Amino acid sequence: MNKYGHLAKSHWQQHLPTRYATLENPTEFFESLGRQVEAEVSDLQAILAGTDPARETYPEKVARLATARRSAEEVVMSQLVWSHDPELPLDQAREEWEQTRPSDENLVTWAERMQDSPDLMPSSVELEQMAKDWAVPTSFLEGLVATEPPREYLRANAEVLTEAATIRFLRELR
């Protein structure tokens, strides 16, 4: 059983004992769940990490990949392992959140402003914070500014935006 299976098993034993007790074969269940979590974390990490930017140093790459891994684990574990008891069912809560969340068009507007006035480009610290807030890699924001028109970049990277929206939604559930 991998680490995700062990984490899930421990969580269920502690927080969902009734649900755990109904499992016919807990070992098989958590081995399978662990493999599923591992595969989805790996897939999401690749999307979140993106491609290697030009002139990226080794420490920057390690940090980018580690951040993508942590974010992917947070999303996947929230979806598949941790229990949530929101006031609304998860699908209804997501629908409500989608109606009130900041529009991805805000990123287009920001990128267009940066293209018009490059001297307004935020510092690397500010860019990292923006990336964290939007749950996208900094390379995504840099690519957005570098592409004209930025809206095309968003269309070409719709998967990243979809996953980022899921991460932001799950953050708000906590």
Describe the structure.
The protein is built from 10 helices and no strands. It folds into 2 domains: 1-83, no CATH class; 86-174, no CATH class. The mean pLDDT is 87. Helices cover 75% and strands 0% of the residues. Helix 3 (26-49) packs across helix 4. The chain has helices at residues 3-15, 17-21, 26-49, 58-80, 90-100, 105-116, 124-134, 138-146, 150-156, 158-173. By secondary structure, it is an all-alpha fold.
Q: How does the helix and strand content classify structurally?
A: mainly alpha
> What is the radius of gyration computed over CA atoms, rounded to a whole number of angstroms?
19 Å
Q: What is the multimeric organization of the chains shown? A: single chain
Q: Report strand %.
A: under 5%
Overall 3D form:
elongated
Provide the succession of SSEs: HHHHHHHHHH
- First-residue to last-residue Cα separation: 27 Å
Count of individual beta strands = 0
- Could you give a short account of the major beta sheet? none
* Tally of domains: 2
Helix content: over 70%
Uncertain segments: none
Number of helices: 10
User: Roughly what is the average pLDDT, rounded to an integer?
Assistant: 87
